[in-house]
TrEMBL record:
This is Acetate kinase. The active site is at residue 148. It is found in: Cytoplasm. It comes from the Bacteria. ATP binds at residues 14, 208-212, 283-285, 331-335. The keyword Magnesium applies. InterPro entries: Ac/propionate_kinase (IPR004372), Aliphatic_acid_kin_short-chain (IPR000890), Aliphatic_acid_kinase_CS (IPR023865), ATPase_NBD (IPR043129). Belongs to the acetokinase family. It comes from Thermovirga lienii (strain ATCC BAA-1197 / DSM 17291 / Cas60314). One of its GO terms (molecular function) is magnesium ion binding. The gene is ackA. CDD domains: ASKHA_NBD_AcK_PK. The record marks 180, 241 as: Transition state stabilizer.
Amino acid sequence: MKVLVINCGSSSLKYQLFDMTDESVLAKGLVERIGIEGSRIKHTKTGQDTVIKNMPIPDHKVGIKATLDALLDKDHGALGSLDELHAVGHRVVHGGEKFSSSVVVNKEVLEAIEECVPLAPLHNPANLMGIKAMMELLPETPQVAVFDTAFHQTMPKHAYMYGVPYHYYEEYKTRRYGFHGTSHYYVAYRAAEILGKPVEDLKIVTCHLGNGSSITAVDGGKSVDTSLGFGTVPGVIMGTRCGEIDPTVVLYLMEKENLDTKLMSHILHKESGILGISGISSDMRDVEEAAEGGNERAKLALDMLCYGIRKHIGAYAAAMNGLDAIVFTAGIGENSSLVREKVLEELSFLGIKVDYEKNKSRGKEVIISTEDSKVVAMVVPTNEELVIAKDTLELTK
């Protein structure tokens, strides 16, 4: 059975085609610069070189059509016919309180995703465009929506509520939602498999660290707290996002700089975090290199990130009343041995000891703590697309 996974952004579209008999990837690609000059599709059939085709892609429907054409290509495609496609799974960023699991798309689901647009104005509209375009081009093929927020719907109310007047929650649903749920779910359950223990018996902190980052407490296989909240700014500092901040600072800067909400939002989302502190880059590789060369602001950005990660791990160990494992994933988590080392060395009170040789690994599943550590630390590369494919298959069998 072949399942296509689609992840639509505002001007891009990523895809992977899976053969679910063995969960192998048959082909994958990226449609770039949708609605922008210089648009193109990059397509890779497993075992072949990447093929790049420059072409006008004015909207997501054309992007979806280009994706299907690439998958059907006689030389580089992986489908003989669209009839081979069992179902399509779509990443949807925000499901609000409506969805605690993945669902087959119908009219009511589309309306519910539309209702969540104010909660994710940059992402949900693009996700919707991808779903609608695919439904129009493949009207007989089942479509499934998999939500970033769904995994976190198990958080208790005392963990997701904010201390603002309760009627704002009742009227506008102002609460912690959390994101990267598909990633946190995958690495937590995979960590349990690696450890050979039931996930129901484990207390795990999963650290999804990339240009966007979040840390989650997973107790018995369920999310009980997470660092991102109503939006994608809180928690640790990120590539260009500020992380947790006293809201009074926001009000103060708006008054001092005469900033409206749009400008302030741009600063918090696009000019802050690792870029704003270092003044060099939002890419941790550039910042690590500068820090090693003696750049003080780069060192500060690195220290702030690692300190923030340690704080959240400590807090979540307290929230769960225990800790069995720490899992690092995503771009920084999988590849930065320096960040992992700086985080774990200052958590020795938990009984963690770093295996420095194993920690040199990049992008591979590996336990990076010593055998006598009381808490296991490990790297698990994330695979959100596979989770989406599995959910899609399960719901459409």
